[in-house]
Each structure stands twice: as structure tokens, then as C-alpha cells.
From TrEMBL:
Domain MmgE/PrpD C-terminal: residue ranges: 286-471
Keyword Transmembrane: no
UniProt keyword Methyltransferase present: no
A molecular-function term among this protein's GO annotations: lyase activity
Record-annotated MmgE/PrpD N-terminal domain positions: 20-263
Complexes and interactors: Monomer.
Species this chain originates from: Nitratireductor indicus C115
Protein name (database record): 2-methylcitrate dehydratase
Key words, A-Z: Lyase
Pfam families assigned: MmgE_PrpD_C, MmgE_PrpD_N
Amino acid sequence: MKTHKVRTHKSAEKLAREDQLAWKIASVAADDVSLEADVVEMIGNRIIDNAAVAAASVARRPVESARAQAVAHAFRPGATVFGLAAADRVSPEWAAWANGVAVRELDFHDTFLAADYSHPGDNIPPILAVAQHCGLSGAALARGIAAGYEIQVDLVKGICLHEHKIDHIAHLGPSAAAGIGAALDLPVETIYQAVQQALHVTTTTRQSRKGEISSWKAYAPAFAGKMAIEAVDRVMRGEGAPSPAWEGEDGFIAWLLGGPGAEYHVSLPEKGEPKRAILDTYTKEHSAEYQSQALIDLARRMRPKIGDLAKVRTIVIHTSHHTHYVIGTGANDPQKMDPAASRETLDHSIMYIFAVALEDGGWHHERSYAPERAARPQTVALWHKISTVEDPEWTRRYHSRDPEEKAFGGRVVVTLEDGSTIEDELAIADAHPLGARPFSRPDYVRKFRTLADGVVSPAEQDRFIAAVERLTELSPQELQGLTFEALPGKLGSSAAHGIFDWNRKQGGAS
């Protein structure tokens, strides 16, 4: 890996293209190095993981809405949409939109945390949609996904967005554009322009994940993927982008990040170096914010030691800066303590999550968020006894570059009514690559089958898994099989309409 210094340059300095971050990203994406076997294996795992979460979410209202918008844009050859028959194709950017929402809705797929946050699996829907539409092979798809993961992980390691209240999808737009460019084997110049376009049109604020969190939390990454496809398409037609995107005098760093004096360091693979960043990422065993994964496992472990939860006086979670200020009491969000809060808000309340995990001894992607579950009096009472504090050592470990000491959990101190205390800590989730039960292919398959049960027929599940097993051997026609068709009646029943199906709402009037 080579580390690149990235800072603002005045327009008069005329920063050469070859010295710009976007060009360096494009060069990595365009470098067609062989994929190593463990990387291909993990790409397959994450395709399965995405499909698992999509199967569990196909009937949820945000996913229904996104799918309805996509169906209004039928197109040939087009791309597939989760839940629909493979023959029902839509324009690739709309397939990426619908599938991106389905993958993201339950906050249940992979994650990578470093200087910033990310869900790198969000790269897969747009890259897969383009691969299907353009008739690419499974090998080309894998090449694109490896590039998308590489660029996103490298950006997340080097550039912090959240401290400036910029949402993490500002790294996703460029990484998805780079992955699409790699899959299509586009030249560096084209990928360079597309990466910059994608950055410009996918930069938004972190209010997406603050206060009254709405379904836009799931839509935001899908929007980035959709914009990445459009950016690549425009550039392929000869259009350009504002340059230099990151380093410009009025660019991303100067006005949205650290300012004209800021300096970032982004490490990228050198020419000929394999793209292995996907192996640094990790999936979720539980449908909740990643910082809660280890704490759910810890609650499960502490539950027998505590005994009668009615005798708990207080619970204090000593944890990292991010956990305290984003999903803890340090956020100062009253919504995080509100039994009437949305699912998206409860997903970002470690106080709620820890209380339910203590009571239930685990976590469920639907039952744990049910309104009646959140409103249960004893749950509310326990929930409101929980607080978080930042511990500098947990913050240091959270940001450590050493995987052996990097930590996303915390130390929990339970004080009982008699004044006695029970303490325990857990640094990483059980399913983490270094955890007690690291996920491997059988775990991903089991997750898929569990979440697809009753939604996707066993035969269709088998067909999908068999296709993933042959990923790099898939022909363009076989690539259309990297989806699943839901059983009849399992796609929801929303009667809502919008602009795209206005005529159907009006009974066909023009």
C-alpha cells in the first residue's frame, strides 16, 4: 500500500491530474489484478448476506416503495429486483435503488469502522445491476465488487466525515463509481471523472442519522448507488466533473471537511497489488447498529449473572466516543429514550438495545423492534436506567489500526439496589473475524435461509446459493440468477402511489 497526502490546492497551483486523489482511486480501480481465493470467497459471502437481509425486508414499506418506483422503469435488458421474477427487469439505476433499500433497510449487513463508518455491502447492488444490464460475467462482477470494497475501505481509513457532520455515503458514491468502472474495464480517465461526479452528488449531512431517524437512513446508500451509475453513464458519453473534487480551492476538503489547512492521508494499493480490503470488513449477527453487536452479545452473557432485572438500580456502559455520542446518551437525543420512537431511532439507541437484549437473552430483527415490545413497562423502566460514558481507552481501541486490539464494544457496570455491582466487558462481537464465533460460508448460508424462510421457497434458496458458489464461473446469462423470487403474497400489499405510477392511480387517464 502507498500512502497519499491529500490537501486543498489553490486553483492557481494547477494540481496535475495524476496527483489528485480521484485519479489515484481510478488507477487502482482500473488495475486488473487477479483476485485471490479468499477474496472471492468473501465476495460470495457478502452477496449471500445482502440477499438474506433483502429477503427479510421485501414486505417492509420503504422497500415496497422503492420497488414500486423501480417497477415503473421497466427496461431491457435491464437488471433484476429482489423479490421479483428474474424476467422482470428494470433500468439498472432503478434496480440498484430498489435493491439498495432492501439490503439496507434492516441495518443487518456488513460494516467497516475506522476514521469513519461504512457499510461496504452497499457497493454490491449498483455494481451487480450494471453487470446484469451490460451482460458481464461473474468474473467481471467480482472484479468490480473487489474494487468497490477496496476504495470504500481505504477512504474510510483515511478521511473522517462524521466529525464534520457529513454522512458516510460521501465515500460510497465514489467507491461504487470506481467499482462499476472496474467491472466494465473502463479507462482511468473515465473512472476519474465518474468518481468525482459521484462525490459531488452524494454528499449529504448526518441529519439522516440524528433525531427523528426516518426511512431515509435506508434510502441514502441506495441513492448513492443510483447516482454512481448515472455518473458513470454521463462520463461514458463524454461529460466531465468538477475537478479536483477533493483538493479544489472550493472543494470537498476546503469547505465540507477540515478546511484549507487540513491534510489527510489515504493509503491505496500500488500497481499490481491485490485488492484485499473486503477481508477487513465484518458482518452483523444482529439487526442493529454495529457498535451494539458486541454489547448485545455481552448482555446475553451477563443476563444470568444479574438475575432479577427489577433489582437493577443503574447500568452504565463505558465505551468509545462514537458509541457514546452517536447511539448513546451523549447524543442528547430524547428520541433515543422514547417508547414511541421509530424503528430506525431504536436501532440507534444502545440504551434500548441493551435493555431488550438483557430481558430476552438475544435479538430479533422484527420482534425486538415491535411497538408493543418497546412500550412494555418493565422494558421502559430498565431502559431508562441505562446510560453511556466515553472511556478514552475504548475510544483509542476503536481507532486503533492494529486489528488485534481494535474494539467496538465496552465495559458494563450494573449496580443493584443493594449497592453491589456486576461488571463485564467485551471488545468485539462473537461473529467478528477475531470473535468467539467468526462467520464463515455456512454461517452466511444459515443467515440467508433463516431470513428467507417463508419468504423464498427452499428450491429457490438452493438455486441462489448454487449460483453464488460458482460466482467467477457465471456466464452473463447466469449472472441474472443472482437474485431471488419471493413466494406469492410475500411482497407486501401497499396501495400507495406516486408520480411514477400516477396514470395507474387515475385509472389509466393520460
